[in-house]
Design brief:
- It is built from 10 helices and 8 strands.
- With 267 residues, the protein is mainly α.
- It has a domain at 1-100.
- The strands form 4 sheets. A two-stranded antiparallel sheet has the order 1-8. It has a two-stranded antiparallel sheet with strand order 2-7.
- Strand 5 (200-204) and strand 6 (210-214) form a beta hairpin.
Length: 267
Amino acid sequence: MKITKYVKKLRDSYKYGNKKTFITFRVLHILVILTAIRTLVTRNYESFATCILVLILFLVPALIEDKMDLTIPPLFQAIIFAFIFAAEILGEVDSYYVKIPGWDTMLHTINGFLFAAVGFSLIYLLNRGSDDFNLSPFYLTLVAFCFSMTIGVLWEFFECAMDLFFNMDMQKDFVISTVNSVTLDPANSGEVIHVKDIVETVVTTSSGEITTIEDGYLDVGILDTMKDLLVNLIGAVVFSTIGYLSLKNDKSSKVADSLMIRPNEHE
């Protein structure tokens, strides 16, 4: 099957599925195309490549459904589309990560919630479809929580690698006014040296270029990483709690059901 025919097939799976999901997909799809045109006009080719990547990512849910014979709930798909658009187009191309405080925090919280839902669905399907597994509600939700946190940690590894090897700044920096470090101890005795109320840091390169950091010291992404993992944890805990209560009380939860990946109904 040619690539173009397969792409059309995936798009049709949205078109003839849930109407609201298709509208969400179509609106965001058009916005990405318009953004791609804008980036070409301004000769921002890196952002144009990001737009192409987003268009490909929009087809992934349908690809997973087709290849793995699963059903991803319409609400879950719509959230995935919105998340990709918010992270890549608004966040990266339109610089919302810098322009809007808390944008990155919001997305990492949603990420923790969504991947807990994915982990919960995968283990639930295994538990439900096998005679060899009979996991308790607590163990099932614990695995879902750990799955979400593992994805969060791997993403932070990815951000660190991008910063180290490709000179990016995915781990955003914070300016702090206090430093506590044993490295500053001249005797190397392990004593913690406390430097407080930093008002300015001056960085001098080997070429003689001087950069002044006002109001403190640049922590080069450490606090950002810890913050991202913390809010990922919060999102994971929220969904894990919903999933646990749904299983423990042996009743359906609208939130859990709307985010649960299931086998296709024809099975």
